[in-house]
Backbone:
């Protein structure tokens, strides 16, 4: 049986009339049209002065332009830097300067922040491009119009250079060395095979989270590279997601637990109005999923609800629904191209069942934090790296996470894991979201504090706080229970579910040192 062409570009050349992408506005893009747009963008960026190894940044919503930028970068030997469009101007400016981005492509929706960031970072005026109108930016069409849509010369593989979320400090770029080979020499869609997702096979991928996120972009791009149709959502809502799955018979998607909670909150009549039986893989990650939410989703969607644990730096674990039901709470076993290990604070590898810091490594290559050799070194033991999560491996190699090391509460010399307390709070019907952390206590060092986003129809105040404390009292040991509950209108999470807990914790520690 002949091998299918490798990579989106070869697939597009072989079947240019196949619909490869459905944009947020419903417009259908053929593979040939998307291929030509990516080729034109390569030529436009080169005409602007970018050369192999250079970086360019995007501040874009989900849409055709961001995927075009990805396809261009990865065949032109460039680094694409997709910037979180929720960042403010100084944060964007930091990434532009740190990545040494030679060009910036932004959407008018984020125009003021992008323009201020470009000014602060010193992005050359002639290399600022806008989708729509941004003062001082050239139009997107200036990069594409009048340029041949045929494959550009000197094609060589480029990468995405993601910046970490910054939950514990400055955003840091994850830079991998360019391999110096043609794009077709690397199986760019092979990543999805880890999760049992096959090439072609009638698959349609639904993008329902922001594409600036590492995993979301990787899933979408990998789908394009192995012949899947990609349906893109710009702004996610639970019912619209169900409609798109039903309409386009979507087979796989990438989600976060917050989306599960919003879906489960829909009236039963709305949930029943849409057919989601086409879903084969509803992969979730990026944040812990409360057990009751996971069980409810498996009851509704069945065995397609799967989980992974990973980091932008690389490596990870995967758990099927069957794995999770057999071992509740696990995030799975190591990927075939990854290895997991747990080490103590002295750098000694721990046996099964012992709690320590979780480390990972990839067999496919390493990385470095851009311009931060110190952080690169301090997060490593040999070829293993960590993002600071605490956990343990069981005898069968399944990983169980407890919390992030930075979030660990030490009260009276006892270790307290906020994720356990948050899970208890989230099981209460009045709680839409919860965060637990340590605040200063003169005798114990730290005491447990809870911040709660009330569910719709539940009023914040003393009666609800007392109800939640009583709820915890029946489910948690005394030393784990929150000593106080505070309410917030909306929890500081990014759209991928990542909680910026330090924003809640740091005001309590102003002028004091945390005992960690």
Residues:
């Amino acid at each position: 049986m002949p091998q299918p062409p490798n990579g989106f570009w070869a697939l597009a050349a072989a079947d240019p009339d196949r619909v490869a992408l459905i944009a947020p506005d419903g417009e259908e893009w053929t593979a040939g049209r998307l291929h030509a747009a990516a080729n034109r963008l390569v030529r436009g960026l080169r005409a602007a002065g970018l050369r192999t190894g250079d970086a360019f940044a995007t501040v874009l919503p989900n849409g055709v332009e961001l995927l075009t930028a990805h396809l261009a970068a990865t065949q032109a030997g460039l680094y694409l830097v997709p910037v979180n469009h929720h960042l403010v101007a100084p944060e964007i400016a930091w990434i532009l300067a740190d990545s040494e981005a030679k060009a910036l492509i932004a959407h008018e929706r984020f125009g003021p922040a992008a323009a201020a960031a470009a000014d602060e970072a010193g992005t050359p005026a002639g290399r600022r491009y806008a989708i729509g109108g941004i003062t001082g930016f050239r139009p997107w069409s200036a990069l594409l119009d009048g340029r041949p849509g045929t494959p550009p010369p000197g094609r060589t593989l480029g990468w995405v250079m993601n910046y970490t979320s910054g939950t514990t400090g400055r955003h840091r770029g994850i830079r991998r060395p360019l391999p110096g080979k043609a794009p077709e020499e690397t199986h760019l869609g092979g990543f999805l095979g880890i999760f049992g997702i096959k090439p072609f096979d009638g698959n349609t991928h639904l993008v329902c989270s922001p594409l600036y996120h590492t995993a979301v972009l990787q899933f979408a791009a990998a789908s394009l590279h192995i012949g899947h149709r990609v349906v893109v959502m710009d702004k996610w809502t639970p019912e619209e997601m169900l409609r798109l799955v039903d309409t386009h018979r979507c087979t796989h998607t990438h989600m976060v637990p917050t989306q599960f909670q919003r879906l489960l909150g829909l009236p039963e009549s709305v949930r029943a109005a849409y057919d989601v039986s086409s879903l084969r893989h509803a992969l979730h990650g990026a944040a812990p999923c409360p057990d009751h939410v996971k069980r409810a989703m498996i009851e509704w969607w069945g065995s397609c609800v799967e989980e992974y644990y990973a980091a932008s730096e690389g490596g990870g674990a995967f758990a099927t629904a069957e794995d999770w039901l057999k071992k509740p709470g696990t995030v799975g076993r190591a990927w075939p191209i990854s290895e997991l290990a747990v080490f103590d604070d002295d750098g000694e590898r721990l046996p099964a069942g012992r709690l320590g810091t979780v480390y990972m490594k990839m067999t496919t290559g390493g990385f470095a934090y851009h311009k931060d050799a110190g952080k690169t070194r301090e997060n490593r033991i040999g070829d293993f790296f960590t993002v600071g999560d605490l956990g343990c491996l069981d005898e069968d190699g399944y990983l169980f996470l407890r919390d992030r090391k930075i979030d660990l509460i030490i009260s009276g010399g006892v270790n307290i894991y906020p994720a356990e307390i948050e899970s208890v709070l989230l099981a209460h019907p009045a709680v839409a979201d919860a965060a637990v952390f340590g605040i200063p206590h003169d005798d114990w060092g730290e005491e447990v504090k809870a911040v709660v986003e009330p569910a719709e129809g539940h009023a914040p105040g003393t009666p609800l706080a007392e109800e939640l404390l009583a709820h915890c009292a029946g489910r948690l040991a005394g030393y784990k229970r929150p000593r106080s509950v505070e309410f917030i209108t909306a929890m500081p999470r990014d759209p991928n579910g990542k909680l910026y807990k330090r924003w809640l914790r740091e005001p309590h520690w102003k002028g004091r040192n945390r005992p960690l």
In short: The mean pLDDT is 89. The radius of gyration is 23 Å.
